[in-house]
Design goal:
The structure is a homodimer. Chain A is an alpha+beta fold. In chain A, 61% of the residues lie in helices and 12% in strands. In chain A, a hairpin with a 2-residue loop joins strand 2 and strand 3. Chain A binds a DNA duplex through helix 5.
Chain lengths: 116, 116
DNA sequence: TTAATATATGAATACTTATTCATGTATTAA
DNA sequence: TTAATACATGAATAAGTATTCATATATTAA
């Protein structure tokens, strides 16, 4: 490849992009947040927990699927601090832990015109 | 599994979750938007194009990696209407097409405290 | 019309990740 | 202290997806 016919403009933009580039670590953090909520099976869990805290049995009831699959996804959500867990007797009760993600999701639903 | 000791509470939440559940299609749409921006290689392209439109050669310069990989990601971004392409002579100039995604990214950077 | 440039793309590969299955651990009740 | 319940988890598999390599297409200049 050589030069395009907007060499000056584009080169300036390239430099700006490089100058403003996020740290690789922050980029990874931001992207992994989006990755966590980009899986429908996890998004369903988040949306369900937005209605209120629940134990695993009821989460499974709310979102469908089998218990093991739901537990695996719960772990990913917990590891990424999207939800938190507290034990209550034999049950583990899960709840939303991250307001930021709620805002992102709420905003996205507005953009998609499928608000609650 | 049987019943947890918050049966009434949780059951009500389950019903609310089911009642408010998004249509499977909308859920898929929303999640695929997050999926598109959850890949660092694509996020870098988006962030670079937020500085201004560029041709492929300069996008490659800005984000690194090889031309083929960048072209493949450009296609995914274009197919998902995140960016748009216009031909200009031998070059294809790409630019941001979706304000919503910009808002989501900008908001996320705020939450992460790594604003521009 | 040929050569060179800029970009796109199909196929193969390599990674990543979701799901399933079987089983393990923690808690409570008997 | 045994049995049952609720949940977690390792390993295997299946599905999805990014990247690479080789090559194709489009445009322009010679």
């Amino acid at each position: 490849m050589e030069l395009c016919n907007h060499e000056n403009d584009h080169e300036r933009i390239v430099q700006a992009a490089k100058a403003h580039a996020m740290k690789e670590e922050d980029l990874g953090t931001m992207c992994s947040i989006f990755k966590v909520i980009s899986e429908p099976s996890r998004m369903k869990i988040i949306l369900a927990l937005m209605e209120g805290e629940m134990c695993v049995y009821h989460i499974v009831e709310a979102v469908g699927g089998n218990q093991s699959a739901v537990s695996h996804q719960l772990r990913i959500l917990k590891d990424n601090r999207v939800i938190r867990a507290k034990r209550d007797g034999k049950n583990i009760v899960y709840s939303i832990a991250d307001e930021h993600i709620l805002n992102i999701i709420t905003m996205s639903r507005k953009h998609l015109h499928c608000e609650v």
